[in-house]
Design goal:
The chain is mostly helical. It contains 7 helices and 2 strands. It has 2 domains: about 60 residues, no CATH class; about 80 residues, Orthogonal Bundle (Endonuclease III, domain 1), CATH 1.10.340. The longest helix has 21 residues. The two termini are about 30 Å apart.
């Protein structure tokens, strides 16, 4: 969370249209920005991923529809009893990562995509004892 503000500022509030238009001068600026990880490959991949995102969005109608297709349009509600029951990746996150890589995305894999799926509510991995788990009563 500490670097999130730095990334938000460096990458135009995470606006894909803006980031997709970044130039080599922007890459040079970002390489000097202490608020982010200054790795040329990751910076250029972020710009390329923004371009891929916009292309996917245009082809599929929305990124959300594309993403949700990997869980059939309905959140997966898992039943983990303990943290060790929560997987780092699944067949769905592997397929999601593979599909994105085939479309040119870089620096992502099934673990990153599973974390995305959890963060966006595509997968609910709250422990069954957690008040956030939909099966919890009382």
């Amino acid at each position: 969370m500490v670097k999130r503000a730095g990334y938000r500022a460096a990458f135009a509030g995470f606006d894909a249209s803006h980031v997709a238009a970044f130039s080599e001068a922007d890459v040079a600026r970002l390489l000097l920005d202490p608020g982010i990880v200054r790795n040329r490959a990751k910076i250029t991949a972020t710009i390329s991923n923004a371009q891929c995102f916009l292309k996917l969005q245009a082809e599929e109608g929305s990124f959300a529809a594309f993403a949700w297709s990997f869980v059939g349009g309905t959140p997966r509600v898992n039943q983990p009893v303990q943290v060790s029951d929560v997987p780092a990746e699944t067949a769905e996150s592997e397929a999601f990562a593979k599909a994105l890589k085939q479309r040119g995305f870089k620096f992502l894999g099934p673990t990153v995509m599973y974390a995305f799926m959890q963060a966006t509510g595509m997968v609910n991995d709250h422990l069954v004892s957690c008040f956030r788990h939909p099966g919890r009563t009382g």
